[in-house]
Automatic annotation (TrEMBL):
Residues 1-96 are annotated as: Disordered. Residues 66-75 have a biased composition (Polar residues). It comes from Parasphingorhabdus litoris. The lineage of its organism: Bacteria, Pseudomonadati, Pseudomonadota, Alphaproteobacteria, Sphingomonadales. Residues 76-96 have a biased composition (Basic and acidic residues). Keywords: Membrane, Transmembrane, Transmembrane helix. It comes from the Bacteria. The chain crosses the membrane at residues 161-178. Residues 10-36 have a biased composition (Basic residues). This is DUF883 domain-containing protein.
Length: 186
C-alpha cells in the first residue's frame, strides 16, 4: 500500500502541473479577457464564439402582422391612387377628344363662309385643316392613356429640342392666361 500511496501523490503533482502549463499559452489582451469573463458559460457547457454581431430579438407575431398590414395598406393606397389617376386621365382624354371634334366641326362650318367671302381656295385650306383636326380627334379617342403617354415619351426621346420648345410655349401661354385672369379681377 505504501507503494500505491507514493504513486498517487505523483499523479496529483502532474495533474497540478498541467493547468500551470496551459496558462502561459492562453494569454489574452486585457480587452479580450473582460469579454471572455462576461460571456463565460457554465461549467460543462460547450459554447462556440460567434464572430458576427448577434441579431436583435425576433419580432413578436403581432409586430410582424402590423408591419405586413402597413405594407399592404401602402400598396393598396398606391394602387388606389394609380387607379384614380388613370380614371381621371381617361375622363380628361374623353373630354379633350370631344372638344377637338367640336373644334373640327367649327372649322368645317367656317369653311363655307370662307368660300363665300375669300374664295374656294382658302375654303379648301380650312377643310383640309378640319380633316386634320378630325383625324387627330379620332386618334385621341381611339388610344388608351398609357399608349398616349408612351407616344409622348418616344416623341421627347426623338426630338428633345422640339419638346423643350413646346413646353416653353405652353408655359408662356399658361402664365399669360393666369396673369390675364388676375388682371380681370382687379
Amino acid at each position: 500500500m505504501a507503494a500505491d500511496q507514493d504513486k498517487k501523490p505523483a499523479a496529483r503533482k502532474t495533474a497540478a502541473k498541467k493547468p500551470a502549463a496551459k496558462k502561459p499559452a492562453a494569454k489574452k489582451p486585457a480587452a479580450k479577457r473582460t469579454q471572455a469573463k462576461k460571456s463565460t458559460p457554465a461549467k460543462g457547457v460547450n459554447v462556440k464564439k460567434a464572430t458576427s454581431a448577434k441579431p436583435s430579438a425576433p419580432l413578436k407575431a403581432g409586430a410582424t402582422r402590423a408591419a405586413s398590414t402597413q405594407s399592404n395598406t401602402a400598396s393598396d393606397l398606391k394602387e388606389r391612387a394609380i387607379d384614380k389617376a388613370r380614371t381621371t386621365a381617361n375622363d380628361g382624354k374623353a373630354k379633350a377628344g370631344e372638344a377637338i371634334e367640336t373644334f373640327s366641326e367649327m372649322i368645317e362650318n367656317s369653311a363655307k363662309t370662307i368660300d363665300e367671302n375669300v374664295g374656294e381656295k382658302y375654303g379648301d385650306y380650312a377643310r383640309s385643316a378640319a380633316d386634320a383636326v378630325s383625324s387627330f380627334a379620332e386618334k385621341v379617342n381611339s388610344k388608351d392613356v398609357d399608349e398616349m403617354v408612351e407616344d409622348a415619351r418616344s416623341f421627347v426621346r426623338k426630338r428633345p429640342a422640339v419638346a423643350i420648345g413646346a413646353a416653353a410655349v405652353v408655359g408662356l401661354l399658361v402664365s399669360r392666361l393666369i396673369k390675364s385672369g388676375m388682371d380681370d379681377r382687379s
